[in-house]
């Protein structure tokens, strides 16, 4: 079912008992702290209202998608599925992908308030300062930055953090790291000494937002087409009056403006980053957006998705693991029984299960995983296990590593592209254009030649297990 906007998602989460309303928490740290504490407890989505200094009704939705039920709502999957079954269902859905183009409409709720010139004030919303050590108030965490490629004409949506600039209510900084698509587009405008037109939304229907975070959408393909497919309905967009860019008609808050070609000296960051560290305080690296138009709905809702120290995930399944899986198979490796990333939103550790069919199969799967594009954002360890191992259970994966891995077979793949937010990088390394780290492939499978005579795993047979469960259920699983 497609949600028209963030509000319909909130109503659906509420219906499932997955929403908690919190009144009167302060934008300065309190909203962030409550979000962190509830996320640690795997609690519901949080809708903050009556935020001090702001009108009642100006709200923040935080910790939105982290349960299986809420993830299912966004991905259009059954809320009964959990864990690996949900990841498999997601992958099956991906297989049926067909682009669905956005539909332009002449107006929409996002236009309820349209402000230009000196009426633009980005401080009019209750933007949280999420953590004590953040370098500012981040309006953009669950945001979508919209740009058009000047040569090819297609439109990209990407989630890149955006921070308010003290004393400059019509400017915002946006941190777009290489090799993000928007960064490549902006470079094209700037090489021609032209400003880059940009629109940014801060709150929209989650299925229109999710593709903006998803590395499975390749260069040249618009996240709008992916969102249309995910929603099973085209995304309705208005044509921005300043930039001509398509903007979701039901977005909560949107801006239009441009990123000038001139260098800037703004300091941005640090901010809580996906790997669980405050990272990326830079001078002149974040782009400045000069805002020309501010649009917002009545009683707008900021979508807040600040990173919280892992394993607190954004979604309840590691959606990016499905992309790694796809890319391993794309390299021609059959027999992959599953892929999982135990630190959910990061491929720092990738676990691959294979049903070995020939000598060297496991190693080949490991090398394909370690070098696929989806591993680029930070892969450090690839662990390959047999298909009898539950890859969603990290204790079981480590049991396989401890008991099946011949350390002599470990492969170190040197000098691969690393994440700019990798906490092991030095400040000097971060300045360079060659940010590299090595990766390791751990083959924790039984040797192919010994599959038949490798010691048998302790445990009762599946058949006897069932017989005993039927006979002794009350002693094993008392009510
Ligand atoms: C909550 C969240 C925040 C993110 N923040 C940033 C960011 O500040 N800068 C960045 O370069 N990527 C960030 N990302 C990652 C990008 O959104 C992601 O890589 C996306 O696929 C990029 O889109 P693109 O491939 O169209 O550039 C973030 C992702 C999420 C889920």
Please explain how this structure is put together:
This protein starts with 5 loop residues before the first helix and ends with a helix. Helices cover 25% and strands 25% of the residues. Helix 4 (83-95) crosses helix 8. The chain contains 12 helices and 25 strands. The strands form 6 sheets. Strands 5, 6, 7, 8, 9, 10, 11, 14 and 19 form a 9-stranded antiparallel beta sheet that branches. The mean pLDDT is 95. The relative contact order is 0.12. It is α+β, with helices and mostly antiparallel strands and 479 residues long. The chain has helices at residues 6-15, 30-40, 68-75, 83-95, 181-191, 206-209, 223-231, 319-330, 361-371, 394-404, 427-431, 462-476, and strands at residues 19-23, 45-49, 59-62, 103-104, 113-116, 138-140, 143-148, 155-158, 162-165, 168-174, 196-202, 236-239, 246-248, 253-259, 267-268, 271-272, 278-279, 282-283, 287-296, 301-304, 336-340, 349-354, 381-386, 411-417, 436-444. Strand 21 (336-340) and strand 22 form a beta hairpin. The longest helix is centred in the C-terminal third of the chain and has 15 residues, at 462-476. The chain has 2 domains: 6-304, Roll (Pnp Oxidase, Chain A); 319-450, UbiD C-terminal domain-like, CATH 3.40.1670.10. The chain binds flavin mononucleotide (FMN). Flavin mononucleotide binds next to strand 8 and helix 5.
CATH architecture label name of the largest domain: Roll
Mean pLDDT: 95
User: Which overall shape is indicated by the principal axes computed on the Cα atoms?
Assistant: globular
The structure class reads alpha+beta
Estimated helix fraction: 25-40%
Number of strands: 25
Low-confidence region ranges: none
CATH class category label of the largest domain = Mainly Beta
């Amino acid at each position: 079912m497609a949600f028209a906007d963030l509000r319909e998602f909130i109503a659906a989460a509420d219906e499932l008992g997955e929403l908690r309303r919190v009144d009167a928490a302060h934008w300065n740290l309190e909203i962030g702290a409550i979000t962190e504490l509830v996320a640690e407890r795997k609690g519901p989505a949080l809708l903050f209202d009556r935020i001090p200094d702001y009108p009642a009704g100006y709200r923040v939705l935080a910790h939105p998608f982290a349960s299986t039920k809420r993830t299912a709502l966004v991905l259009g999957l059954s809320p009964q599925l959990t864990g690996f079954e949900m990841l498999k269902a997601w992958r099956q859905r991906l297989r049926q992908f067909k682009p669905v183009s956005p539909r332009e409409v002449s107006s929409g709720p996002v236009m309820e308030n349209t402000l230009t010139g000196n009426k633009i004030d980005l401080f009019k919303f209750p933007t949280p300062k999420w953590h004590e050590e953040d370098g500012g108030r981040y309006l953009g965490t669950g945001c979508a930055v919209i740009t058009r490629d000047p040569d090819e004409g297609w439109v990209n949506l990407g989630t890149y953090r955006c921070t308010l600039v003290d004393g400059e209510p019509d400017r915002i900084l946006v941190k777009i790291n290489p090799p993000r698509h928007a960064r490549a587009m902006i470079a094209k405008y700037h090489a021609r000494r032209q400003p880059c037109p940009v629109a940014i939304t801060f709150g929209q229907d989650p299925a229109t937002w999710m593709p903006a975070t998803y590395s499975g959408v390749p260069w040249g393909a618009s996240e709008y087409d992916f969102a249309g497919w995910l929603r099973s309905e085209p995304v309705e967009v208005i044509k921005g009056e300043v930039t001509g860019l398509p903007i979701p008609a039901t977005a909560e808050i949107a801006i239009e403006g441009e990123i000038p070609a001139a260098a800037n000296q703004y300091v941005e960051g640090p901010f809580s980053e996906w790997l669980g560290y405050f990272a990326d305080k830079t001078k002149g690296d974040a782009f400045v957006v000069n805002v020309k138009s501010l649009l917002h709905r009545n009683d707008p809702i900021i979508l807040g998705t600040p990173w919280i120290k892992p394993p607190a995930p954004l979604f309840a399944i590691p959606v990016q693991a499905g992309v790694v899986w796809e890319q391993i198979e794309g390299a021609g490796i059959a027999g992959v029984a599953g892929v999982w990333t135990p630190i959910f939103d990061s491929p720092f550790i990738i676990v691959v299960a294979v049903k070995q069919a020939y000598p060297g199969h496991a190693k080949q799967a490991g090398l394909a995983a370690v070098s696929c594009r989806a591993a680029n954002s930070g892969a450090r360890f690839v662990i390959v296990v047999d298909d009898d191992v539950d890859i969603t259970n990290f204790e079981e994966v480590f049991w396989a590593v401890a008991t099946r891995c011949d350390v002599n077979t470990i492969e170190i793949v040197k000098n691969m592209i690393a994440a700019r937010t990798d906490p092991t990088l030095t400040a000097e390394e971060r300045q360079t254009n060659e940010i590299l780290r090595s990766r390791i492939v751990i083959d924790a499978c039984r040797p192919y030649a010994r599959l038949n005579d490798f010691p048998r795993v302790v445990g009762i047979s599946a058949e006897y297990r069932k017989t005993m469960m039927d006979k002794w259920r009350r002693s094993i699983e008392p009510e």
